[in-house]
Protein 1
Amino acid sequence: MELEGGAVQVEDTGAADISPSVALLPSNGASALDGTQPPAPRSLSSPTSAAGSGSSSYSLSPPPTRRRGRPAATARARRPTRRSRRRSTTRVGSEAWRLEEGEIEEVPVGGNASEDSVAVDRANPLSPLTLRAIKATADAIVGPSDGVATVLVKIGPIPLQLEDFLLTLPNQWFNDELVNAYVELLRVRQIKFASSVRRKPHYIFFNSFFFDKLTEKGSFNYDAVRRWTRKEVVLKARKIFIPINVTDAHWFLAVVVPAAGRVELYDSIGRAQEHMGKNLARWAKKEASSHGLPKKDWSVVTMPCRVQENNDDCGVFTCRHMELMSKGEAVVSWGGSSSYHRRRIAAELLSGSL
């Protein structure tokens, strides 16, 4: 069930191969050995008034003027705006996607695994990518040299352009479009599973603009997000997933657990974000009061999770944490290099399925 303003109820499941409405655009026909140099991470325009406004038509789709990147390190200089940035075109070749020693790109002999658009075994989070996925991701990073925006795929109403997919390359920072499109894949997979087993969904996903609106202009504003949940008592859900950005500098995941009265924070750089968690606890109390639910003491807990090894992968880890937790899997010691998970996320987005 999709709630007003971007909240979506879903069911706890590990089911795979469920595709949302995805519109693939024609390939530009370029060789996979040609490419576009990944752009330097960039700072983009501030949210428009429509961002996270709670439109009932669809709210996971970010406004087209707001394509901000999400670096993991705050020490970097502020990035130029998208309008002023010029993309230089060079060859990236096979080094664009780097795998750690021992990881392979070949599809094992046997079966029809190469037919899958993502991995040999979708249920395995570390399964080798198929040749089809390898080719698709290589082709996706090839773009025109004139800087013209190229939409490669549309996940529901969220268009992903060439510049978005370039951010899935190593050393780049995920933006709202990538994270919200991935949330869309998660919600469609889960909501279809819930429908197939005729169970009431237990999970809710908010897009990246929920927390932005809740704390807009540096102050707590419950009324700014009240419309998002006015038609549903979201605190009856098992968990509420909320990807959060810290001053356009870092992604981390917050998970509201209503039954326990707890806000869990999963931060891949191990930084304390309790002040942001307290805002979510305050929101939960307001939400309970508005729906006549019993009062509860809320706590904010920083949870253990896998730590990233560089300054660029916070968006990757946030997406993977949501994906793993939505299947009931642990997020403390999941394996695989960040390069592998970046390319798998790119393949999943291109295919429109998890």
Protein 2
Amino acid sequence: MKTIYFHIGLHKTGTTALQTFFTKNRKKLAKYDILYPKSGHYINGHHLLVWAQRKKLSDALIKGFIGNRKLNFFVHQLIEEIDNMPCDNILISSENLAARPFIELFRVIDALKQYGFKGNIKIVIYLRRQHELLSSYYSQYVKQSTYSGRISEFDGYNNKLNYEILLNKLKERFEKKNIIVRVYEKKQFINGNIFDDFLNSVFNINLSNEFILPKKDPNPRLNVKALEYKRLTNEYFHNKYIDSFFETTLLKYSRLVDPSTHKAFQKYGLLSEEQKNNIFKKYYKSNQNVAKDFFGRQKLFISEIEKNYDHKIMKNLNIIDVIEISRFLLESKFKIEITNEMLAEIIIKSTMELILEKNITFNEDKFEQIIIPNDKSIIKTIISNIIKKIKLITNF
């Protein structure tokens, strides 16, 4: 009898890395009796199974890819692929299946049964420390959208932070033996590796040299200064193309100044110690219940909560940081070296004239002597000017 394994995330638990791994190793997985279907597949995951259910899609590319096709179209394709392949194990992966817990997942399963699938269904879900998940998701949201709120105002993931409630929803539909719960902590991964952890815990396969590993983190993050810069610029974006330019270029800047941003398992210090402690206390009991229920122990997470190191930087981005990042953006866009004099003319001069209410001139050798008050309103003015300049000289 065939079994479908639904890997549903959660978001920010290595899903993109795993999906990249599955896609690169599709043929090798088939040798182990595992089908990673092409039906419903978009980029690396089976996101079309979810997006085909949505009434509104903001991404024009996805709209064009899906067209008028609905869920049944992709499920019918999937059933045909499953029937035509000899593999007894089918792996479906999309973190979006848990986005609205678990409406789209249940619809996909119901549609599969309507089309005649009579095999087993298993769920694979990774859980991450709540404050890390919140910080990571906030960072991703600021990076890829025009959200300009602070993390203390962010509630985009709160409905999925109580893992006991989340898993109880799954238990209402599936027997506990069919829910595979893993913890997104390097110390808890089998052999300290998420790819080994998934293959071993789900399919009882050891990771060997025949498998191709992703060369880098396929979902890199902004370093904390670039993230705060992007958050402030988000107040001015009304064009997705310039937003995309800022995201791509700030990722390059982040990698240049902090190579760890392109590696997995880097800590996020966006929350204060008080905020992290409050989150820890809020979910302590529910985490303990999950640990007892699925692992037979008291603690769900075993790694120590990291010390804070980025929170103050996030709150206090300074003028020098803004000028440095602005220079990098301009040089990346115009492919020329931006001298101090050019930089002064582009973003500093207009800002200082606004502050001093008079016209001023700068010489190259005087640039380093400029003293600008470290004020949030001035930082925002500089950022506004940099965006205007890029818009003025480009086709955005």
Protein 3
Amino acid sequence: MHTALAPFLGLTTSHEAVKQAEKLVMQSLGVIESVWLKGDAKFLLGSPQPSIADLSLVCEIMQLEMFGDEV
């Protein structure tokens, strides 16, 4: 997202910042999978149905998907 938005905002892009952000996103997704989606749970906290937290998380992840390989 940094490389896609920075030029529009008049900011310089930093390859190092992009790599750090990518690493942080991957770590965060790993925590979501290992802590919040335990076992066979399909939704956060093992709930049988989606909650506001699930919907919010989907929105955030979809924003990343929107940028595709530019993220």
Protein 4
Amino acid sequence: MAQVKEQSGLEERSGLFERLLGWIERVGNKLPDPTTLFVILAFLVILISWICSMAGVSAIHPGTGKELTVTNLLSKEGFRRMWSMAVPNFAGFAPFGMVLVAVIGAGAAEKSGFLAALMQKMLANASRTMVTAVIIFIGINGNLAGDAAFVIMPPLAAVTYLGMGRHPLFGMFTAFAAVAAGFCANVTLGLSDALAYGFTEPAARMIDPTYHQSPAINYYFLIVSCIVLTVVGTFAAEKLVAPRFEGQDLSKYGKATVEALTPEQHRGIKMAGFAFLIACLVLIAMCLGDDPLMGDPAAGGSIMSSKSPFMSGIIVTVSVLLFIPGVTYGFVSGKYRNDKDMFRDVVAAFRDMAPYILLCFFCAQFTNYFGWSNLGVIIAVKGAAALKALNFTGIPLLVGVIFVSCIVNIFIGSASAKWAILAPVFVPMMMLMHFDPAVTQVAYRIGDSITNPLSPLFYYFPLILGFAHRYEPDTGMGTVIANMFPFSLCFSITWIIQLVIWCLLDVPLGPGGGIYLQ
């Protein structure tokens, strides 16, 4: 009887949560098309900039000490700037170029059938839960490949899940949530670690002029995060999101089951593996030596410098490492007979990106208008000041840093831009509370990650919507947000609990990165 009651309670709680997700989906789907949304937001920024400029809204930048005022875009100067900069805004929109470069390699690997065949071979005997765990783990560590993970993982997961007889959107949303919400966690140091620390050290020196550590100050914490978030993400996917896709007809998506690989496909995978290995060896050779080809001469030949060809060209590297095995598989398996067949697939991949390219134009205008107006910077400064005024101490203060970072993340997409504003406020403030800069940095990075998949203003949110339209043309923003919410909620709770445990046990966050100042 007790077991029946327990099961009934579980179903009731699940039902309440499902109703919440249903409400989020219905409300979200009433929002206009993302392109229209960015047009509306751009006009709102123009209007609000005029109102705030007339009202004299301002703030003091914590890093430079300069007064920040709202720039009125509803003026002659504002109009001239917006009109003349429309094309440069579009051409300089960072995600636009990175995504298109990544599509060259990802498109060849996907359209040739290489990724689908590889996943089928690797996961042939794996359980559904294990496949989900693998997808989430790879997605969480996807930031090591830069923004290319946003282009590669969702379509790959969709094909993999469809081949297992599961809904492709379930796989797509699971992969996107892992890449976006787990963005700062990784098993090795990456560019994000170096970028974050680059703002932490100068901020810490405002209190301690001798402060100096390495970008690895959060490394131990983030390694554990990879494992913990993989487990929690798998639970969220299988128990909270998967039931929303069960019982749906998959026949409209093509083959719901994948036939056994042919000898040609097996041979194609093998030769693609050899081609990939050779490409990796060439890349390694380019990274070796006192003055490596992929190194930054100004940094002593370091390949980990943000200005080195290896790090600054990571998108090109990933695209090449996908293109080579993808094309090799296509020719060996018989999919391609000549170069025309090969480039036909790459063009098809670009054709799929047409809606995203259109959206990028308007997204770029909104992003630049928002930056020119100074509204985002002022909101960030005011938010940080509000947290400081609450006079929180101890662990609640750390949680407050996480939540302020979550809110600011909605308005400012760039992680480095946000930390450039918040670090000069949070790091010194927390040091005066005897918190090590490392714990302040990790709290910010948690908040910066968990709301990524929920914000329609996130650079890659429109991309996942475009991918979803391949299978369900009527998919709205509400559908994406509703299926992202369980992941963000579970990741938030888990990360906060992990950080609290770390603080209570006073465990080092990484080499040279403690919880409290000695």
